[in-house]
Amino acid sequence: MEELTTTEPRADFEPRTFADFGRIWLESRVDLKPTTRASYRSMLNTVNLEFGEQAPNQVSYLQVVSWVAKLAQQGVSPTGVRQAYQIVGQVLALANRLGAIESNVAAGVPLPTVCRTGRHRYLTVLQLESLALEIGWWRLTREPSGVILPGGLGQNVVFLRKKGRGGYLTRRKSRAGAIDAGLASLARARGGQTPAPGGNQLEILVRLLGYTGLRIGEALALTPAAVDLERRVIRIERAVSEVSGRQVFGTPKNGRTRVVPIPDFLRRDDLRVLTRAACGGDDFLFATKHGTPLRASNLRLHFDMAALAVGQAGLHIHDLRHTAATLAVSAGANVKAVQRMLGHSSASLTLDVYADLFEPDLGDVAGALSRMRQTTLRRAAA
Question: 125-137+172-346 — its CATH code?
Answer without folding.
Answer: 1.10.443.10
